[in-house]
Design goal:
Helix 6 packs antiparallel against helix 7 and helix 16 crosses helix 17. With about 550 residues, the chain is an all-alpha fold. Among the domains are: about 35 residues, no CATH class; about 280 residues, no CATH class. The strands form two sheets. A two-stranded antiparallel ribbon has the order 1-2. It has a two-stranded antiparallel ribbon with strand order 3-4.
């Protein structure tokens, strides 16, 4: 049956939709074969100045030139509307693997920060994700960015969301800085006033974040044709192994994958439940690591999940009994909520999309008052911790002249620049969709790097020798030093304490969001998002479906 007969046989109300689908299906091969004449179809005569330069165009097997989406001045991917985006430039997109990107886990407060992920671990995450590292739409945005499937409208929405959020975060930071030396009563009054002013805008911002998650997952005509929708329909993460899967997969690993994905893709969850699911996923991953790594000695001050969700802190072992009891109650109540949520994800995993969403929505309603009560208990704990004198914090570095301290910091910065350059050179994973390239041994790459940067290494040695000489001169003239230390010992002590101070400087927003009394729960989430972004955690590589 041809297109006209099919339209005639259908009711009038269905004809526009069927016509649109037929246009996409029937005309697509013609458009692909004639991509070289795209500018002519748009009304520009061949040979005019509207044609891109020949160096920016590829070659069709028949000899005609093709637009190069990597170098064209006009990028149809970014500026076409949703129904036409990627129509020509990604005509083979359905043959490309779709990568999944999940964010890095926030570390405990004050933990050592890792600058890099292991090299060669997969498709690098799009760098634009850095600004959305703690957003509920991070994974779906990552997939859309990697597939170059982000229409202009959604780009502008995300940019507007980002601008409003940054403005609110800067307001909060400025107020905290001004209240640094104020008494507790003044701090409480001023912060409460700001919380009332910011509350409507933060609520609207969180609503926008939830809507962006849904729009990025399902939005756009192309997104629907590509099969995006309920994550459970096409996912490869399940709680049980397939019958023909040998050897069967680890049940704990499979549950981790399901829980981690549900935190971002499952409908029916509240924003707080999504954050709790992230905590559950982090706990499952830690359990998996313990099962494959040698047993570690017990940690007396192990961090625990506090508030806002996914934030972790350590507290001294000798807390007052009342405060220790409040913390124990908080942990027990939160663990109870997570146990219910984890059980629901297990029980509803095989249900249909509508039923699963309905059941989880009911659970969200039941858990909401208990989650709010946890926020109140957390505020009482913060007020108690504010009176504890030996809370974890940055160490005091050895007293050194400012000129020597500045030279040491500059030396460390130059070393770090070289390290980053080396890592960038060896960290060049080739996605599965690209042709295989010749693999160069890492030893050869490092040797080539050393030869190329020999001058910088020589300058570093001169810097280090100069610092050692300045330290020796300082130690000879410092008569008040109670204990004589070697130059290397003093340099190492200063280096270690300085590094820890710099780490704690990066945790400044994290510390305020988690421990400063007087902020509203919404403000804490707002500031914690800024804190995780400020940590500049390396973004995990993309994962292919199993």
């Amino acid at each position: 049956m041809n297109a006209s007969l099919l339209r005639a046989a259908l009711p009038l109300g269905f004809r526009p939709l069927i016509g649109l689908l037929l246009a996409v299906i029937l005309l697509r091969p013609v458009a692909a074969d004639n991509a070289g004449t795209l500018s002519n179809a748009a009304g520009s005569p061949a040979g005019t100045s509207d044609q891109p330069a020949a160096s920016n165009r590829g070659t069709h097997p028949d000899g005609s030139s093709l637009p190069n989406p990597q170098s064209e001045t006009f990028d149809a991917v970014r500026f076409n509307n949703e129904s036409s985006s990627h129509y020509y430039n990604t005509r083979n997109l359905q043959l490309q693997p779709e990568y999944y990107f999940f964010p890095p886990d926030p570390p405990p407060l004050g933990a050592e920060l890792h600058l890099f992920h292991p090299v060669g671990t997969g498709m690098p995450a799009p760098p634009e994700l850095t600004a959305s590292v703690n957003e509920p739409f991070y994974p779906v945005l990552g997939t859309r960015l990697a597939a170059e499937d982000l229409p202009r409208r959604q780009q502008l929405e995300i940019a507007g969301f980002r601008a409003v959020k940054t403005e609110l975060q800067n307001e909060l930071r400025s107020k905290i800085a001004r209240l640094k030396d104020a008494d507790a009563a003044t701090q409480q009054q001023e912060l409460a006033s700001l919380a009332r002013m910011q509350a409507p805008r933060i609520a609207e911002l969180e609503t926008t974040a939830a809507r962006l998650r849904t729009d990025l997952l399902r939005g756009g005509f192309y997104g629907r044709l590509a099969g995006r929708g309920d994550w459970n329909e096409g996912r490869s993460w399940h709680l049980t192994s397939k019958p023909d899967e040998k050897p069967p997969r680890d049940p704990l690993q499979m549950e981790f994958e399901v829980v981690r994905s549900a935190a971002y893709y499952q409908d029916g969850l509240s924003a707080a439940q999504r954050r709790l699911l992230r905590e559950i996923a982090m706990e499952l991953q830690a359990e998996i690591r313990r099962s494959v790594e040698p047993a570690q000695p017990p940690d007396g001050d192990a961090p625990f999940f506090f508030s806002p969700e996914t934030a972790r802190i350590r507290v001294p072992a000798d807390l007052p009994a009342e405060l220790a009891g409040q913390i124990a109650t908080f942990v027990a109540e939160k663990n109870g909520l997570k146990a219910e949520l984890r059980e629901a994800i297990r029980n509803y995993d095989g249900a249909g999309a509508v039923e699963r969403t309905r059941l989880l929505d009911q659970l969200a309603t039941r858990q909401a008052p208990r989650i709010a009560a946890l926020d109140e208990l957390a505020e009482n704990i913060r007020r108690g911790l504010a009176r504890v004198p030996d809370m974890p914090g940055p160490p005091v570095p050895p007293r050194l002249p400012a000129e020597i301290a500045a030279r040491i910091s500059a030396y460390r910065g130059h070393k770090l620049d070289l390290l980053k350059a080396l890592h960038a050179m060896v960290a060049q994973p080739v996605p599965d969709t690209r042709p295989r390239q010749k693999v160069v041994p890492v030893q050869e790459e490092v040797a080539a790097f050393n030869r190329e940067h020999a001058a910088q290494f020589a300058e570093l040695r001169i810097e280090k020798d100069g610092i050692r000489e300045a330290l020796a001169q300082y130690m000879r003239g410092e008569q008040a030093m109670r204990e004589r230390k070697s130059i290397d010992g003093l340099l190492e002590e200063f280096e270690n304490s300085r590094q820890k101070q710099e780490v704690w400087e990066k945790y400044r927003d994290y510390q305020a969001a988690v421990l400063m009394p007087g902020l509203s729960p919404e403000q804490r989430r707002l500031l914690f998002d800024a804190a995780v972004e400020k940590l500049a955690l390396p973004l995990p590589a993309g994962e292919l479906p199993r």
